[in-house]
Specification:
352 residues; Rossmann fold; 12 strands; 16% strand
Length: 352
């Protein structure tokens, strides 16, 4: 039987990779990309599948329950993969209410619309909530890892809003029997990443010989997950995960910001024909972010053991591929930084 899957936030960084994977891998599914096209949503990310017969784009804001309810009534999804979120920690510090509206209220709107649609028949349905490792707080640099049972301890408005949404997803499972799964992932990197984030920002600044900002002393440690590996994990969890369960997705790639940026500078010097060490001179240390967690590290052994997923790339290889993509797609970056992408692609690919 043909399934309809709504993927929220499908014009964003991670979401576009998930949409592309599902559209190409499952021609028997109808994939509905629901996105509000805020600053981080870019339909140019999906030009290669925009005309596929099993793909539909719907512009909608998940904070508007009446609209979401009407969309669910129209498309009658069998599954929801929920990636739509405000995700930039710095922005959450300056405007926490935007994160509460989207990440908490928006998630609750989707949960309730799904519950109302599926209340007569939950069998074969699935609500998949994509979350973050930041809900767990911070780790000491002592070799320990976040596991699925790690106590929540969010430190930023962003992570607090995601922690709240995780709890609501579990509450809808426990209270209403909604079939849900949750995943908490580490930092993603790869193509189509909005250039406010560390890696694409650094690539763009190195290319233009602009300062590369690093918070504090650059000692913060993150586990980096290649975005295409993340999309594959979402596919596996959506189809094979156990209702009510949580799965951690990590790349097994811990790097300090200092080491990451120095590696990136070396790769860029080689790709751009510069003297090794030239780009590293652009590194500029800036005042640390408020509430900046020292270290995140994911133990994804449950996902690997139970569902057979594992990351395909080590960080150096994935970073090479990422740099190659950005250098080959300068026009994409230019349209992002100029703001042109918001007007042109919304007009070309709006609701159809």
């Amino acid at each position: 039987m043909k399934k309809t899957i709504i993927i929220t936030g499908g014009a964003g960084f991670i979401g576009s990779h998930v949409v592309r994977l599902f559209v190409n891998k499952y021609p028997e599914y109808q994939i509905v990309n629901l996105d509000a096209l805020t600053y981080a949503g870019n339909l140019e990310n999906l030009t290669d599948v925009a005309k596929s017969p099993n793909y539909t784009f719907v512009k909608a804001d998940i904070t508007d329950y009446e609209t979401i309810s009407a969309i669910f009534a129209q498309y009658k999804p069998d599954g929801v993969i929920h990636l739509a979120a405000e995700s930039h920690v710095d922005r959450s510090i300056t405007d926490p209410f935007a994160f509460i509206r989207t990440n908490v209220m928006g998630t609750c709107n989707l949960l309730h619309a799904a519950k109302e649609l599926w209340k007569e028949q939950m069998e074969g349905k699935r609500f998949y909530h994509v979350s973050t490792d930041e809900v767990y707080g911070a780790l000491e640099n002592d070799g320990t890892f976040f596991v699925e049972t790690t106590k929540y301890d969010p430190h930023s408005p962003y992570s607090a809003s995601k922690a709240s949404s995780d709890h609501f997803v579990r509450a809808y499972h426990d209270t209403y029997g909604l079939p849900v799964v949750i995943s908490n992932c580490s930092n993603n990197y790869g193509s189509h990443h909005f250039p406010e984030k560390l890696i694409p920002l650094a690539i763009n600044n190195i290319k233009h010989k602009r300062p590369i900002p690093i918070y504090g002393k650059g000692e913060n440690i993150r586990d980096w997950l290649f975005v295409e590996d993340h999309a594959r994990a979402i596919d596996v969890i959506f189809h094979s995960g156990k209702n009510g369960d949580t799965y951690n997705i990590g790349g097994n790639n811990e790097w300090t910001n200092n080491d990451l940026i120095h590696l990136l500078c070396s790769i860029m010097d080689r790709k751009l024909g510069r003297t090794d060490g030239e780009s590293a001179k652009l590194i500029t240390y800036v005042t640390d972010r408020a509430g900046h967690d020292l270290r995140y590290a994911i133990d994804s052994s449950k996902l690997q053991r139970e569902l057979g997923w594992k990351p395909s790339l080590q960080f150096e290889e994935g970073l090479e591929k990422t740099v190659d993509w950005y250098l080959a797609n300068e026009a994409w970056v230019d349209r992002i930084t100029s703001g042109e992408y918001q007007q042109y692609y919304e007009q070309q690919y709006s609701n159809r």
